[in-house]
Every structure is written in C-alpha cells, then in structure tokens.
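ugh ok so i messed up the first submission bc i forgot one of the chains. this is the corrected input, ALL of the components this time, i swear. 1038 residues overall. if the numbers dont match what u have on ur side tell me asap before i send this to the collaborators (the ones from the other lab, u know who)
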Amino acid sequence: MINAVGRDIPEKVLQDTGMQVFQGAYARHNQTYKKAAPTVRGIVDPKESKMVDSIAEVLKKCGIKDGMTISFHHHFREGDYVVNMVMEEIHKMGIKDITICASSLGKAHNPIVPMIEDGTIVGIQSSGVRGKIGEAISTGKLKGYAIMRSHGGRVRAIEEGDVHIDIAFIGAPTCDCYGNMRAVGGKSDCGVLSYAVADAMYADKVVAITDTLVPYPNLPASISQVYVDYVVKVDEIGNPAKIATGAAKPTTDVRKIMMAEYCTQFVINTPYFKDGFTYQTGVGGASIASTISLGKIMKERGIKMGLGLGGIAGPMCKLLEEGLIEKLVDTQDFDLTAIESVAKNPNHYEITASEYANPMNKGAYVNQLDFVILASLEVDVNFNCNVVVDSNGMITGAQGGHPDTAAGAKCTIVIAPLLQGRTPAICTNVTTVTTPGETVDVVITDYGIAINPRRQDLIEAMKDVKLPFKTIEELRDIAYSIVGEPDPVEFGDRVVGIIEGRDGTIMDVVREIKPYEFD
Amino acid sequence: MINAVGRDIPEKVLQDTGMQVFQGAYARHNQTYKKAAPTVRGIVDPKESKMVDSIAEVLKKCGIKDGMTISFHHHFREGDYVVNMVMEEIHKMGIKDITICASSLGKAHNPIVPMIEDGTIVGIQSSGVRGKIGEAISTGKLKGYAIMRSHGGRVRAIEEGDVHIDIAFIGAPTCDCYGNMRAVGGKSDCGVLSYAVADAMYADKVVAITDTLVPYPNLPASISQVYVDYVVKVDEIGNPAKIATGAAKPTTDVRKIMMAEYCTQFVINTPYFKDGFTYQTGVGGASIASTISLGKIMKERGIKMGLGLGGIAGPMCKLLEEGLIEKLVDTQDFDLTAIESVAKNPNHYEITASEYANPMNKGAYVNQLDFVILASLEVDVNFNCNVVVDSNGMITGAQGGHPDTAAGAKCTIVIAPLLQGRTPAICTNVTTVTTPGETVDVVITDYGIAINPRRQDLIEAMKDVKLPFKTIEELRDIAYSIVGEPDPVEFGDRVVGIIEGRDGTIMDVVREIKPYEFD
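and heres the new structure output, hopefully the right one now
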C-alpha cells in the first residue's frame, strides 16, 4: 500500500505488525486513545530493601524469561556499559527471543551483535543504530524487524501500548537505596535522564543500575523511587570520556560557515524572529556555527530567545549564561559544558522525552518551537528527509528528534551540503523517508536555498531578502550535474527495518542489502 | 461481615460498592495490579491554543454531562474558590449526578450543600469534610455514599481505577498558556500542588484554573503541560488570607507542653533516634511543641534529622534553616513560613501525593519514616484511631496522611489529651475506625503513656526510662473514672459514609445520625 510520502509498504509488513501506513503528519489529529499502563505490585513492606547484589540476581527477581522486552536509555552515548552488562548476563542464562527497546544504540553496543546472530536478541526498537548493529540488521541477521522511532515516537509507542516493556534497566549516575535517580553527580555524569522516564513509568519492573550510591533521598530525582523495584550497584556504568566530550571547536569549513550564515539570514528575516522566540538546533558544525552567528545578531538587535530546547550543547549554554536565552529545556547533553550547565544554571531545566516531543500527549515542547535547525543525509524534491539510512542502503543513523521538531516548529530548516563527497544530498527520491516533506519548510545548501512551495508565507517574507533562493529541483539538478544521478541502491526483497512515523504508522521500510554489495 | 478491626460491614454496602472488608494493614502485600489509565487525545495541532475564556465554556469543551466524576485539590484550604466556582457553573447548566473526588473539602465549600440537596452532587470522595457538608452527609442528604480516603489511599484509588476522574479542575497559583502549573508565586501562593498531580495524570480531561498567567514556560512546573487540555484565567482562585496563616504561636497549654515533653523523651530513647533519622509531625499544639523540644535535644547531642516529611509548618522549616534537618519533602504547606521555605530553600522539595503515601506504588516516602507524631479524636483499647467522626457521630474531620504514615513509620506515636472536655479520648471502642491499631505503636496522653503490646521491642527499650507508662486499658479506666463511660452514639440504620482503608478495603462505615439527635 502506498503511503502519504509515496512509499510502497508491503502487505506482509502490515500483516506482520498490524500497523497502518503513514497518512500525513497530522492525520491522527485529535484521535483519542486509552493510555497503556504497567502491571506493578503493592503493598511494599516498609522494611523491605530494594538493594540487589548483582545483575544476575536482579534478572531472576524480575522473572526474566524468553520473549521479554527490555529497555535501556542512551544518555551515556558511546560511553555506555549498561546495555552490554545486562545483555551479557541474559546471554549467560541462555534466555532467547529478547526484544531490546532502547532510546538509541551506538557503536558502544557492538558486543551484542553475536547475540543477534544466536537468537538471544530477535527484536530491536531504537531511535537508530550505528556500527556493527546497523550492519547486522541491514544484512538480515536480526530475526524480527528493527523498528526505528523518533524520540517522541518512542514515548508515544510506550504510552499507546505499541510496545510493552517487561523490564527497564536504567543506568543512573547517582541513585539512593530506594531508587531515586539523578543524572547529575557520580562517576558517569550525563546531565539528564529524560529518555528513561517513560520506561520507569510504563515498564512492569524497573531496575536502577548505578556506580554511585548516595544517601537517601537523592533529590531532586529525575526518576522517583515510586517507579523503581530494585537497585543494583556495579563498579562502572559508563566511560565518562565517551559520555561527553569537551566543547566542539567552531568549524573552519567554509561551506559550513556559509550555510550557517544563510541560515541566520533566513531566520532573522522571518516574522518569528522577535523577542521571546523559541529555537532548537543540533550539534553539527553548521548548526553550531549558525547558533553562534545568530547570537551575534541577537546581541546587536537586543532580541532575546525565550526558550531553547532539545539536546543541548555548549553554544546554547553560553547564550544562556550571557542572558541572550531566558530558559533552556533539556533532554540530552552533548558535551561537558551542557552537563555543567544543567547542574548549575537555575534557568536550565531537565524535561522528559514525552514533554519534549511525544505527539500523542496534550502538547509537547516541540509544538512551541518557532525554529528548528536540522541536518539530513538526504533531502528529496518533495522535501522528504532521510536521517537513518546511508545512500548505500545501510542503517547507520538515528531519527532522534528530527521528525518531532519538524512537525512542531513554525519554521523547520534543514541544512545539508549539496554534496557529501560524491553523493548528492538533494535528490529525486531519498533512499528512505524518515521525516515527511510536509513538515520541512526550508533546505539550505552551500549552492542555494529552497523554500517548500507549501510555505508561500515564507516565500513572501523572503521576497526582498538577498539570499541565493532556488527551487529544490534546481538544487537537485546542480547536484546531479556535478556528480551525476546516482544509481538506486540495489536492495534485496526482505524487509529488515521499519521507519515508524512519530504517530505510529509506517513511514518507510528498509530492505536487506544484497550480500554482494556489502562484501 | 466482620473485618480485621472488628467492624461489622453490612452486606448491602459490600454489594453496592463491590469492595472488600479490611483484612489487615499489610494484607495486600505484594499483590500485583494493572494501573489505571486515562483516555486522552493526540495529535494536538501545534498552533492550537489551550486558553479558554470561561469556566462555562471549558465545561462544554470537556463534554460535561450527568453522572461524571470531577476532581479538585485542597491546597487552598479554607481559602479555596475553585470548587464553588466550578460547581456553580455546573449547577447553572442543570447537570445532575456529579461525583466530586476531592483531595479534601472544608468549610469553604459550604455553598455546595444545596447542590447535594438537589441532586447535582450525588457522590463525595474526600480525605474528609467539615462544617455543613459533614452535616449534610451525616444527616443523610447525599444520595450515594461519601467515601473518605487517606491521602495515599486517594492516589491508590485513582491509580488502581477505583475512581475514574472525567475532568480534573486544578487551581494553579501560576500557569502559562500551555498549562504548566506552579504553586509558587501569583496571588494565591500555596507552596506545592502535590495532591493534584495524580488528577492531572489520570483524568481524561484536565483544566488548569489560574488567576495569574505567566510567560511560557512556567518552570519548574509542579504539573506539566503534557497533562493539561485547557487553561482558564479567572479573577481570583482563592483568598490568600485563608490559604495560609502566619506561624502558629507556641502553645501555652500546660497539658500540651507536658505531652510534647513525654513525646520527646520517648523519641530520644528509641533505637531510631540517631543521626539521619526520618520524622513527620502534624500541626497541632502538642505536635509543634514536641518538634521544638526535640530540636533542642538534637542541637545538644549533635544529632541531625536526615529527612522531614509530610504537610509542613514553620517549626520544621526553622530546623531546616538551622541545619538540624538536611532535607524536607513536602506535600502541603500549613503556613506562610512553609510556603516561603519551599520557594526559597533548595533543600525543601515538593513531592507528589503518590510519592508521599500511596501504598500501591513501589515504595512511598512514608515507608522511610522512623517516627510519625499524630493526633487523634479517639483511640480505643486496641489502639484503633478515629480522626474523622466526632464522638456525637458527625463527620467532621479528615483521614489526611494518618493511616499512611502510621502504616509506614517504624514508630507511630499518637498524642491525645485524655479528655476533650467531657469526652474521653481513650475509650473501649472508637466511634469509627480510621487507622488500624496494628499500625499504632504508642499513645501519649497527659495522664500517661501506653505502648502497643505488639511492640515488645519498644517496651523493652523503655524499661529504664522514667516516663509514666500505663496500659491502654488503665488510661481508658482513668478517663472513664473522671467523666464516666460515654453512652454509645445512637445512629440510624442507613450507611452514609465509608471509611476506606488505604488499600481500598472498608475499614468502617458511618451511619446516619438519628434526626432527633441532630435537631
């Protein structure tokens, strides 16, 4: 069945999953649903301790068994030890058919690949995957479908009951004996625990895993004791050096600086650029450069940002400190500056992933965005973006908050250099659709800027602005004229991955890569 | 059927309600249940405003209709305008058969009595009632049963689905246009919104009512935008003069000072009185006097309280400021000192009612209590307490956190002057059981102290302590020898109220007062 972004979703996938095809970014507007709920236990004996000696023991206490769904968060990023630590014990116990529902997975989790191959793990649900896990999925090693969800879409899936988490394992930089978890402090400080809150609220069993036990009560708790069954202390939950890096140096890439300058000029010429505006940006070189150049103009014109949101990096914290941003709401910290800021700056707040981006709650923060500045691997002439599958067909990225912020913001700007090496970023059809073009307003490349024709208001606002505006087709044509039209990826037939729209429908599928191509 | 505190619960009540009789404070230990869940709507249009012009309009938007259950919180105490404001509109619309599920109701709500009489309101669920509402219930004016729940029991009832809230009306001292509510600031500052959090999370529709609209986002929010459907701004949500009073003057009543001294001596001679202990007390004269006298000894001995919790009043805040308490967790503010403290002192934290006292979550704060100091209208020779029904049979009090803290604390101390005028506080059988004797460890009167024989460990700990220990029967006999054994209240047959145990079973019933007695 063809969906609203023109992708043909195989009947077999619809039958296997019971899912619907994507029908438009706001097609589920005002649909009512009964929220999911966990099965929990009471009355807890007031004298009962929640401390458990080891991962192995807590798995037994939680009743781990074949076929369960277990969850993890990715706030430790490439420094995470928790996923491997838990999966190793599950593997030792000979448990099979596990589905991992993680907020994201990265190269740190390469050690679970053999468990995919031997059937310990049969399902992966994640914002994205990288490295060996992506290869394993793309080459058909995973028995079930890999489901890629946006950050908002993951909470939605949990709250709507599309996924039911049997046991949530939550790595906590600090925790007390009764399960109050904080991201701040400890040996593996990660700033916030936003993505894990839904897991705590909706999983049947919740296990806190920490390397830093602190006196009771550990307040203000990111995750409260009332959701936590057990607490396990281990030696190390992460590698601090890989959790957060130092501040990224401002880019010296002239293409990126030029695109950042285009972006800033675009932003300041929209009607949304006024005192109190709301803004989100990513951590790519061009995004960070545009934050810096926007900050200069804000200072010159005396315009303050009311609210900055999303995953937070140093440059936004600097603007907060300088008083150019009034408040930051934070779901993820990309560097040490951000981690320090959320711990110390009273105007820098942790929010949950549901508050950030869930489309099926009563109004997430993304709905209040004036601007979001995003990157993309590919953008097609319908403004559809691909942030998950590389142009060779390999799963290697993550949806993150891309579709969520695009759907919420009044002005969604995607920055992409026209060519990534020999690969055109602007193309006729993206390899895989992750963010629907109807939610993307502007594409900025180093060869020109295209405004989505759906946004005549923005085209009108820019009519006297001196920027190199082009149509999206013109940008594609320039790209193709330089490197030629790329051959389509030759996929196999088998569907290995599902790109889930944030509303729970199927945006696209990812097919197996033909072995000859991979070898 | 006779329950575990010896009360005969009529079959009709069991049939009408489908409830079970109380079988012991921990009888439901480790029972599993699936949590309740609301029916909500998504996807919200990012451009949609949540602001609604009037209570009347918001009632229509929420689809108010006959038979609905609506909820309120009582953080504005006797200064609350919200209940009357909403009920007046519902009454005007001619809606019938409404059940009010409030965290508590007081004399401020006397204006709803005519709505009980005319069938607008047919059910009341509350921690307690006072004044005219109590009279109306006790004299049989309410069509259905009034259900009295503890603070923890109310959250349990909501989370287990015993009560389903159709529309929650949440008065918010400050709110932004998207529904982020705070208790701090504004014209009707009430400190915390703890009791309303479950309403926001479990009601189908949630309406924020404020008199102080503030810029977006109102952070840190006690209740988040993601739970809120609509925001209504009105002129005044409360009368600040009645929300919080100035600090209570220390009592000069020698009986109370003596009981406070007994209490302190008891506390410091238990094994639980050591650095880092956890403590809760009420706002009665003797409780406050005991906090002050305990503070002196803590200072002398260099012993700090690790955590103070519950409803908070000035004396606890003073100990926090002096460094004698490390942290306070707060569900209700009784005076201006407490309201100022929670706004300004970084070691004074707001917690939710579920975190405070819900018996059916994975571990509430009451479970961590070493001591709770409580008051009681009556205590019987089985240590059962009555805090809801006066000895004339009229409903006139509230369960509050009494049964919750008693069940959680390692040492539950009840202070009651032996005689309240001509009424003995220690008696053979309490008029109504609200807190089961198995959870009450010590009763302190001005005529002596009784330790529950179940607590041989405490009896042993006190064997060399010079305090006037007596058996509970001896205390009762002294009381009866002075004022005589009181005649039992002559109730009618009809059951008008149910005292619900915190686990959702029936602790006791309250019968109609015979008209001749009331007139």
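quick check: Chain A has two domains: 50-243, 254-489. that seems consistent at least. Chain A has a mean pLDDT of 96.
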